[in-house]
Amino acid sequence: MGKKKRGHPDVEEVLARPWCYYCERDFDDLKILISHQKAKHFKCERCGRRLNTAGGLSVHMNQVHKENLTNVENALPNRAGLDIEIFGMEGIPEDVIQSHNQRVLQQYYEAEAERRAATGNPGPGGTAAAGGAKKPKFESPSDLKKRLAEHKAKKAAQEAAGGSSGDVTPLGAGHGAQSPAINHSPLGFAGPPGYMQQQPAFSGPQGTPPQSAYTQPYGQPPQYAQAPIQSPYQQHPPFSQPGFGGPPPFSPAGASPFSPPPGQQYPQPGVPSFPPQFPGGPPRPFGAGSPPFHQGPSQPPHNHNPSAGPIPSRQGSLPAAPGLPQRPSFGAPHVNAFQLQQMHQGHIPGATNPSQTGGFPPQQSHAPPNEVSEESTGGTREQDHSREGAPGSAQYDTPQPAPANATSVDELISSAAKDVDGSKPATTEAGPEKKAKKEKDKNTRQVYTDNDVSPEEKMAQLPRYAFVPDYREETVLGPAEAAVTGPALGEDDVIDRMD
Amino acid sequence: MSSNQQELSEPPSDAISALKFAPDSSSRLLVSSWDRHVYLYDEHEGQPNQLVRKFEHRAPVLDVCFGKDDDEAFSVGLDWDVRRIDLTTGEQSILSTHEAGVKSVVYSSEHDLLISASWDKTLHIHFPSDMISHAPNTVPLPAKPFSLSRTPTKLVVAMANRLVHIYDLRTLALLCSQSSQPPPNTTELEPWQHRESSLKFMTRAVACMPNDAGYASSSIEGRVAVEWFDPSESSQARKYAFKCHRQASDNGVDIVYPVNALAFHPVLGTFATGGGDGVVALWDANAKRRIRQYQRYPASVAALAFSGDGKFLAVGVSPGFEDGEEVLGEGEVKVFIRELGENEAKGKGTK
């Protein structure tokens, strides 16, 4: 087995590989992905400066070169939009992640099936099924296609029903409504529907191997570990009782989200989606003014039920793409978790929600209640950039160009970049600089601070430079040059003035 | 890179205040210093950059400029005087006297005007060729002037409180020539344009583009602004500012140095900045890109000058300029003449 693993990676390894939203290329390391994005997609074609995000590049082009950036370079045709803020793996819409994962999985199982058919080896964990493993090679393509077709049909139906689809391009009309899906914590992701959906895609020729796949990509340990978190909620009577009608729903749902048949889960799907939000206490995801807990249960969106029809739009927290898998966690997420806590400190004192690690910090972080309404407009980041950059030249001309990107995204970026780059601030161009802008007062020290008296005037005050009226006598006695300067001293004039 | 850079063998003994190349000869350089002298360097017996002569003054000299030819110079300084120096005979004559130290002086060959700016908040406008019949005009300013620069048609005066006045030289010459009174011969003059500096902090230096289109200004807070004379909105929209001459220190604090010196390349239109950090950088004002940055000089860059043909860049280095502290002794004051390669100061273009 060990030998085999070397040849072809586990499905989780495949899924965990960082990949670029813009060109779907995958990388060994998040660091490499980030440098790829900076080099390929966020590089200024005018001056070669490498920015951290498309928004940053847009602002840079606008302010420095007075040009407008319309699309991201070297991107797939439907991914070239500027309205999504991507940094490494951050900011990729759930639906795109999902479709990417599906694609990856599909490729993986195809490859594995091929391999098995070729070698005759049983798949990992495939014991009894191994016997029938040789033939399916010929069956599988059609079977696969059939399932894929089914799956597609299903997805189309969902799409028609207002849900989102992983195939939807980021520029799609529905996008605005989809991207904020992050506000749904992964725990609340409609695990079951997605699970069902993906099944066709997953199941390769063999029925068995996929099962290992399910638990790995989607069954993130932290997620299961959430079950205990319920107890804190139950300590809050107001929460659990009016909202949920008592604890009972929790345990089945939390304990094994996957075990009940999908159909059974729908009746209480809201439940699992809440725990991650409750620790926050304040109604962050719910938009301003909405009573947090009573709204929750009554909100259909929490069902994540793709067949529930068009989901009523809700401020701040828009319907999730159906069947959101939790994003595999690698590298970046732990940064996010940290950042998230920072960002939400005001809102969620001390809430450490592991399930948020896979969320979309850029947008989440962006959702203080008063801005929530904007969240739903889609392309918020872009708007922000343009808004802040709007004064354009005028603003740029001011000595302290207002921190053009003083949002928490940038904080995230800079710190993430720092982290990625081994905490060497100098290695990222924009990050530290932006930070410096923000914390200007703290981070700079002027060598000369007197804004009213020039250095020359100060020097002129020094005794050694003091103008001595009698100096001319000295010059007469001076060295060889005195002969040159002597006649020009204009004695009368000097005497007049000195009086 | 150091091979094409020469250090002057007999530099001033105290801080440098200004460097100026002769209009017609790229080997002839004037250096004014706080050591109360103006130094003339030139090619001498086949050796370049030799000290030819020095001209003693009664007080530290703050600025110097060439006059109508390579043998005439004007100097100003803490003795409040504006002087004319005959570089061949060494004869000095006082053209006018301010009521405070005189910071800057510029000569406009096109209009045969000599303009001096003093901390007494006045400009003195002299007609060097007609000093007898026409007393210098005194033009009051709203604030202390810190830097002067001129193009063939404009005069830019950068002052305290971030004020900038732009005068039209032709109008200035005309009005001043008509207003002839006995001294002080005060002439109230409205500038062609009143501006506020684009920079938030005290203006350190100002330099005009050789193509007469605009100017750059620098501040004590490591920043340079580039703007255009044309008051139209589209031209004003082009102005910009950028940070430079900053240095990150170990504890994450950016040390921000003043940008002491600015000089435009007379041919290529690029410009050089010299900062308190001892760094000289070349910039392309149009492409908004830095062309190059030279290796750090041993001390703060106090003054910069391009030769008339743009082949040489003179860099005046003196320590302790910023803090107003006692300037260190000899050896720390240096003047470098850098011979520029053909494309060394050329902009990279906007791509």
TrEMBL record, chain A:
Q: Which InterPro entries match?
A: Znf_BED, Znf_C2H2_sf, Znf_C2H2_type
Q: Carries keyword Nucleotide-binding?
A: no
Composition skew (Low complexity), residue ranges: 213-242
| One Gene Ontology cellular component | nucleus
Q: Which domain of life is it from?
A: Eukaryota
Here the segments flagged for biased composition (Pro residues) are: 258-285
Which portions of the chain have biased composition (kind: Polar residues)? 196-212, 352-367
Q: Kindly list the places in or outside the cell where this protein is found, as annotated in its UniProt entry.
A: Nucleus
Q: Where is the composition biased (Basic and acidic residues)?
A: 136-151, 431-444
Region annotated Disordered sits at 116-456, 478-499
BED-type domain ranges (all copies): 13-72
CDD domains found in the cross-reference section: SUF4-like (cd20908)
Q: Enumerate the spans annotated as C2H2-type domain.
A: 42-70
Q: According to the UniProt entry, which residue ranges have a biased composition of type Acidic residues?
A: 490-499
The UniProt record lists the keyword Aminoacyl-tRNA synthetase? no
Q: Which UniProt keywords apply?
A: Metal-binding, Nucleus, Zinc, Zinc-finger
SUPFAM superfamilies found in the cross-reference section: beta-beta-alpha zinc fingers
Q: What is this protein called?
A: C2H2-type domain-containing protein
Q: Which organism is it from?
A: Coniosporium apollinis (strain CBS 100218)
From TrEMBL, chain B:
- Asked whether the UniProt record includes DNA-binding among its keywords, one would answer no
Origin: domain of life: Eukaryota
Q: Which Pfam families match?
A: WD40
Q: Which InterPro entries match?
A: WD40/YVTN_repeat-like_dom_sf, WD40_repeat_dom_sf, WD40_rpt
* SUPFAM superfamilies for this protein: WD40 repeat-like
Keywords assigned by UniProt, alphabetized: Repeat, WD repeat
Whether Cell cycle counts among this entry's keywords is: no
WD repeat residue intervals? 259-293
What is this protein's record name?
Answer: Cell cycle arrest protein BUB3
Task: Give the organism the record lists.
Answer: Coniosporium apollinis (strain CBS 100218) (Rock-inhabiting black yeast)
